[in-house]
Amino acid sequence: MTRVNLVYTPRSEEEIAARVKAIEAILIEGGLMSEAGVDRFAAVYENEVGPRLGASVVARAWTDPEFKARLLADASAACHELGIGGLQGEHMIVVENTDTIHNVVVCSLCSCYPWPVLGLPPNWFKSMPYRARIIREPRLCLKEDFRLDIPQETEIRVWDSNSEIRYWVLPQRPAGTEGMGAEELAALVTRDSMIGTGFPRAA
């Protein structure tokens, strides 16, 4: 049997944009979608589905201790309180970053991902190099691949999502945000901070 090594090569924003335009043209020219339909689909994933929704959940948890407790106890039910849920989000578990614990999420078998709160998974999340390395050497992977330097004294926990359970991270609230409202706080939350491969933006 011949072994084939698959290597994920990141694509530039220009390459990705060109591919998106090509697919859009095929859909419209083939009569599968109208231009307005494509725009609406894009708007839904940009504004209604994805990291913005997860960011709103995180901001709520940062400002409401009771909601935070419910989120950590039953993430799917807590998100449902805010009208967030659906396919790929039926059974979600949220793990909290603290001063002593840093959590990071992977799906080692494929690309199981909490779509209702994080939107579409990034290409690197689905790649074999990430899936293998983050489990084998998480500290080094975070430092070299994501420029995230986790102190040696901080424990790193890797959570492996699957078809039944999808994990995501409640990042630590940035310092100096005590007077900020929910919308301002949500703007600091990044997709990567909810995967564990990044931190929230600084205030």
Overview of the molecule:
The protein is mainly alpha-helical and 203 residues long. Helix content is 47%, strand content 11%.
In a nutshell, what does this entry contain?
The chain has 203 residues and is mainly α.
Roughly how many Å apart are the termini?
54 Å
What profile does the largest beta sheet have?
2 strands, parallel
CA-based gyration radius: 18 Å
Strand order of the largest sheet: 1-4
Helix and strand topology:
Layout: H1 13-29, H2 35-48, H3 51-63, H4 65-73, H5 75-81, E1 92-96, E2 101-106, H6 115-118, H7 123-126, H8 128-136, H9 138-146, E3 155-160, E4 166-170, H10 182-186, H11 191-195
Features:
203 residues, mainly alpha, globular, 11% strand, 4 strands, two-stranded parallel sheet, disordered N terminus, single chain, 11 helices
